[in-house]
Amino acid sequence: MELSDIDLVTLAKAARSSTAFETLVKRHQAPLRAFLIRMTDDAALADDLAQEAFLKAYRALDGFRGGSSFRSWLFAIAVREAGLSRRKEASRSRIDAQGGSDADAAPPAEFSIDLQRALMTLTPEERAAALLCDAAGLSHAEAAGAMSAPLGTVKTLVSRAREKLRATMTAEIETGAQSAMAAKR
Amino acid sequence: MEIELMLKQDFAALAKRLYADGFADRVLRRVGGVDRFRLAVVGGAGAAGAAVAASQFETLVLALSQSVPMLAKLTVADSSVALNLGAAPILLTTLLFALVGGATALIVPGSR
């Protein structure tokens, strides 16, 4: 019989069983990394953030009281880590910009929008909400817990993200069709 | 295709690819490192504490003998058997140290 997350957390806490935590890591690492890859658009950074999230979860395991699901708690740590990394990156970019570098100019003309690129047009909050609810399959309440945001805000973010994604994807399809027709002529 | 479905399918395909690589092992090695570091810190602190406590053993025994002199002379006598409890201050000090050690051991598992 497969143990539930809560059982495994209890085992990891009470018996300090690394096997129990190992099972939790193996169970949740792929969805967590997939979420972070889509959040950051950088696989290496996503792996670093996921690793940090697991280590923080391990250290803070005694503080997990089971008020939410383990998955939602773990994703909350990952969302915080991603936010922290984004802020660090932003401040680094500002310093680079002050240095007079113009290497990060406008995106290339052949800016092709696939799903990942469409996701990157959303705000980080919209992206997190859409990925947590629509991609990772968390409930709105779980996503609200993971994002430390009110339930209503998460619902609004998800619906706004869907609208934006739909518009971006539609625009891309139309642009693609026009380019194809122009090429035929 | 619906956006929700596209996201779900993309996410499932991506996650499926990620299950098989060695990421979990890398994380677990780092978790093992955290445990080893904690053990070293707790062990080091324990050894230092024990050394400090041991250096005070004689002083404590002396203090106990002086504060309750009857402990050192205590004899439980019967018609045929006489039990000398002259070593009582040493026993009490040892007991005190064991108590402190036990209390520390109780706290340690919670200090993740």
Q: Please state the structural category of chain A.
A: mainly alpha
What fraction of the residues of chain B are assigned to beta strands by DSSP? Answer: 5-15%
Approximate shape of chain B: rod-shaped
Biggest contact: A-B, 35 and 25 residues
Poorly predicted ranges of chain A: 100-113
Give the N-terminus to C-terminus distance of chain A in angstroms.
63 Å
Proportion in helices of chain B: over 70%
The H-and-E topology of chain B, N to C, reads as HHHHEEH
Helices of chain A, by number, come to: 8
Shape of chain A: elongated
- Described by its quaternary structure, the protein is heterodimer
| Helical residue percent band of chain A | over 70%
Major sheet of chain B: order of its strands?
Answer: 1-2
Largest sheet geometry of chain B: 2 strands, antiparallel
Arithmetic mean of pLDDT of chain B: 78
The helix-strand sequence of chain A is HHHHHHHH
Question: How would you sum up this structure in a few lines?
Answer:
The complex is a heterodimer of chains A (185) and B (112). Chain A has 185 residues and is an all-alpha fold.
Description:
The complex is a heterodimer of chains A (185) and B (112). With 185 residues, chain A is mainly α. Chain A is built from 8 helices and no strands. Chain A has helices spanning 5-14, 18-40, 43-59, 70-98, 115-120, 124-135, 140-147, 151-184. Chain A is elongated, with a radius of gyration of 20 Å. Chain B is mainly alpha-helical and 112 residues long. Chain B has helices at 3-19, 23-55, 57-67, 69-73, 88-107, and strands at 75-77, 82-84.
Main attributes?
heterodimer, A: 185 residues, mainly alpha, 8 helices, elongated, B: 112 residues, two-stranded antiparallel ribbon, 5 helices, 2 strands, 77% helix
Annotate the secondary structure layout.
The complex is a heterodimer of chains A (185) and B (112).
Chain A lengths: L4 H10 L3 H23 L2 H17 L10 H29 L16 H6 L3 H12 L4 H8 L3 H34 L1
Helix pairs in contact in A: 1-2, 2-3, 2-4, 3-4, 4-7, 6-7, 6-8, 7-8
Chain B lengths: L2 H17 L3 H33 L1 H11 L1 H5 L1 E3 L4 E3 L3 H20 L5
Antiparallel strand pairs in B: 1-2
